[in-house]
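Subgroup meeting minutes
Present: P.N., E.W., G.H.
Scribe: E.W.

1. P.N. recapped why we're keeping a running log of single-chain structure predictions: easier to compare across weeks, and new members can see raw inputs and outputs side by side.
2. G.H. added today's entry (610 aa).
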Amino acid sequence: MWSDNETAIDLLNIEHYVSTVIELATDETLLPVTIGVFGDWGNGKSSLMQMVKQKLAVEDKVVCLYFNGWLFEDYDDAKSALMGTILDEIEKSPKFLASAKKTLDNLRKKVNWLGLMGVAGKYGMGLMLGGPVGGIGAIAMDVGQKVLKKATSGEVADTTQKIFNDSIPDSTQVRRNIQEFKEEFPKLLEESKIEKLVVIIDDLDRCLPDTIINTLEAIKLFLTSKNTSFLISIDERVIKYAITDRYSKFDSQQKESISRDYLEKLIQIPLRIPLMNKSEMKSYINLLFASKHLSVDVFTTLLTSVNESRKGSNFNVGIDLPWFKKNSASALGNGLDEELMITEQINDLLYDFLKGNPRQVKRFINALLLRIKLAQLRGVTLKKQVLAKLMALEYMKIDYFKTLADWQSLQNGQPKEIKELESVTHEKDEDEYKKWTSDPWVRKWLNAEPKLGDENLESYFYISRDSLSHFSTPSIELSETEQAAFDELVSGSEAHKIKGKDLFKNLTEQEASRIVRVLVERQTKIDPDSDDGDLIALISSLPNLKREVSDDVINFLSLAPEKSIPPAVVAEIKGLQKSATGDLKARTDSLLEKFRKSIINKQLAKAVDL
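Output recorded in log:
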C-alpha cells in the first residue's frame, strides 16, 4: 500500500513542469515574482513542490523555504505567523550570517507588533496592505488601540508591553511600521548573503478562506525584495472562492471582477498542472505496482529506463506490460505481471471515475490491496482482476453493485443474470436487463475482461460488505471545493441550498459527477419505506444545473424504488426533456413513461400528465 502523502519521486511524468518552475523562480529578470501552481485537488501539486524543493536544496546561491499552509490555520493571525516563520527559517539557514542578527531582530519586533494588531482588529492589517477602503478599517484601528491601552496599563501580559515599549501607535505609525518591514527585509537578505530566496507554500487550498487571504496578503510584504520568489500550490477555484467569500457583500459580477483582478495582481505567472490522461494513468498505476514489488535500487534503475523511454517526442509512451517485457523483463514475476494485467483490462473503466487524479488512483488501489489482505487473513484467495472489476462497478455505479450483490446472495455466489448479461447473444428484454444494457458505461463494464459469469462471487461480496452496510461511509472522498458545494446542497436551509446549486453549476464535470455519486450513496442508505423524498428531489434537479450528470441521475431514478420518488421529480425531468436530444431525449421519455405507469405511486403517475 502507498502513503497518501506527497513524494519527491516522479511517477507522474511531471519532470518538465519541475524544471520550468525552478527556471522561472530563479530567473533574475523576473524577480520578485509569485508563481501560482494551479491544479485540481489531489492531482500531484504537492509532489511537484517536493521535487522543486529537493532540486533547489543543492543550489549554492538559493535558499528554499517550504511551508504547508495548514501550519498557519490555527493561528489568530496567519499573516504574522507566516512572516515570523519565514524569518525563523532564514535564521536556521546555513547561509545566515551573525552580522544580520540585528536586522533580523528588528524585523521580528515588527512582526510581533503586527501580529497583535491583527488579533486586535481582524481586518485592520488586510486593509493596510491594500484592501478596499471603508468603515471597517477605522473600527479595526479603534479596537486595536483599545487593546493596546490595556496592554500598556498592565491588563495584558508583560510580553505585549515589551512589543510596544509603552507606546500606543496611531494609524500613521501602523503604516510606517509596515513600510519599514518592506524596506528592511531586502537588507536582511543582503546582509545574510542570500542571493535568491524561494518560498514554497503548499496545501493552501486546504485552509479556511480567511487563512488563504491572510497568507496571500502577507506575501505582498516580501515582494519588495528583488531576489525573492513565492511558489503557491493551490486549486485556483479555491482562491477565487476565498476572495469572493471575503467580499461577500458585493454582487456576483463584482465578486467575479474582484477575484480576477486580485489573482492577476498577486500571481504574476500561473502554471496549471493537468490531470493524467488514460495512458498516463495506466503508466502511473503500473509504476505504483512496480514500486511495491521491486527493491529501491532496482526500482530506481527502472525509473531511469522509464525516463529514457520518455525523451523527445516519446514523452507520453505507455509504461505497460509490453513495455516491461521489452525494457525490464527481469522485473516481472512475483505477482507484478498479474497486477499489470489489471490495468490492461480495466484501465478505461477506472479512468471514467478516477479521471486521472493521482490521489484517487492511490486510494482505489490501496482499497483493492486492503481487501485482498483481509481475504488472505480469512484464508480466502481472491483474484485481483475480478475484485478490481467489481470495485469499479462499486465506485462508479453503486446501485448496480447492490443489485448484483442481491443476485449472487440468492444464488450461492453465481448469479445467472450476470452470465446472461455478459453474453453477446442474450435476448432477454426484461426491465431489469434493460437497465444494465441501456447504460453505456455498464455495457462497457460487462464487456471488459475478466468475465464474471463463471466466477463464484460470494467471497468478493463478503469482503466488500462495508459498502453494502447501511452504516458505511461514502466510498468517495470529496475535495475541499466539492465538499463546500455538497455541504450547502444538503443543508436544511433553503438559502444554503441555493448557494450550493450556484457552486455546483461552476464545478467541472468530474467534480459534479462525484457529488452526484455521494448523494446517491447517501440516498441508498435511507429506508426505502421512508416518505422523505427531499434528497431524491435534490438529485433530480442537478441535471438542469449541469447537463453532464444527466446519465448518472437518470440511472439512479430508474433504479430507485418508485414509492420513494416524490412528484416534484417529474417537473425536473420534464425540464430536462425539453432541451434534450438523441439518447438523452429517449431516456427522459422512457423514465417519464415509467413514472406514468406507476401503480404503487399514484401521485407520481398523476404528476406526469399535469
